[in-house]
């Protein structure tokens, strides 16, 4: 792999973002979006992660779209009540009104996936009304050799293919006004095998907006690779944090020692 952008990536500020996947009021974690297991109370986890030094936090209502409902605002309120770091919320957001309600609660950014694929202009409308920095498009992608890039966008919590090329979709999202992309590898989710660096790099090298790497972190090296090989500026992880395999302090100490620009 070429590292022509290594200098730039070593200079950029890298942020650590734990992710609370929510179902029935609890944090859960699965493998490839299935076989969910309990990972604790969202409020206790949120407090813990902020104390540990998380730079941002994500809360994803993973069953909202499949169940045809809006984001559970109570879960969001409860988490917001115990943290001061920026919170990104996704799941069940399909209108500008949905976005406005969450921003009024104090959410920093919203993440849209299925709704954006179904109606791409929602990205432009949200960006125009609230500012592009508040609009993150979540791109869940799986390997598919029929796609030009080899990756297909999937929606509805990974249950539905779109026949849409992930890299082309990423570029379209940026052109419509997205302020960031949350790129999750369906194939790596929960596996602890590491980010899909081919997917992450293909997207990060095709856009100029920040890319959040997601799906598969199992050891410290995976996080470093997410920046240096994947080109991500925000590193999202769940399993290693929820099950206390690696601490956020461990991550930051490791990445800092490797020369990355980390927020202390």
Poorly predicted sequence stretches spanning 5 or more consecutive residues: none
What structural category do the secondary elements indicate? alpha/beta
Number of helices: 11
Named at the architecture level, the CATH assignment is: Alpha-Beta Barrel
Q: Say what the CATH topology is.
A: TIM Barrel
Based on Cα principal axes, name the global outline: globular
Q: Give the C-alpha Rg.
A: 17 Å
Number of strands: 13
Mean pLDDT: 93
For the biggest sheet, the summary is: 8 strands, parallel, barrel
Quaternary class? single chain
What string gives the helices and strands in order? Answer: HEEEHEHEHEHHEEEHEHEHEHHE
The total tally of domains equals 1
Secondary structure: elements and pairs:
Layout: H1 6-11, E1 13-23, E2 26-31, E3 34-38, H2 42-52, E4 57-61, H3 73-80, E5 87-90, H4 96-105, E6 109-112, H5 114-118, H6 121-130, E7 135-143, E8 151-155, E9 160-165, H7 166-176, E10 180-185, H8 197-204, E11 211-214, H9 220-228, E12 234-237, H10 239-242, H11 248-257, E13 261-262
């Amino acid at each position: 792999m070429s590292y022509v952008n290594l200098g730039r990536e070593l200079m950029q500020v890298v942020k650590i973002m734990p992710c609370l996947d929510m179902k029935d009021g609890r944090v859960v974690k699965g493998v490839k979006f299935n076989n969910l297991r309990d990972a604790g109370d969202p409020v206790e986890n949120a407090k813990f992660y902020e104390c540990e030094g998380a730079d941002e936090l994500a809360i994803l209502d993973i069953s909202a779209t499949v169940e045809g409902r809006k984001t559970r605002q109570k879960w969001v309120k409860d988490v917001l009540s115990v943290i001061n770091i920026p919170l990104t919320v996704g799941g069940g957001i399909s209108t500008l009104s949905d976005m406005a309600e969450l921003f009024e609660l104090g959410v920093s950014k919203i993440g849209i996936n299925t709704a954006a694929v179904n109606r791409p202009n929602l990205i432009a409308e949200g960006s125009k009304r609230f500012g592009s920095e508040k609009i993150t498009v979540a791109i869940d992608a799986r390997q598919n050799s029929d796609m030009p890039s080899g990756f297909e966008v999937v929606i509805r919590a990974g249950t539905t293919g779109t026949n849409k090329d992930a890299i082309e979709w990423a570029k379209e999202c940026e052109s419509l006004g997205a302020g960031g992309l949350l790129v999750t590898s369906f194939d790596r989710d929960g596996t602890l095998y590491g980010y899909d660096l081919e997917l992450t790099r293909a997207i990060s090298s095709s856009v100029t907006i920040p890319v959040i790497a997601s799906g598969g972190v199992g050891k410290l090296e995976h996080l470093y690779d997410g920046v240096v090989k994947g080109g991500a500026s925000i590193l999202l992880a769940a399993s290693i944090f929820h099950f206390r395999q690696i601490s956020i302090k461990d991550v930051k100490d490791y990445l800092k020692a490797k020369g990355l620009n980390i927020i202390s």
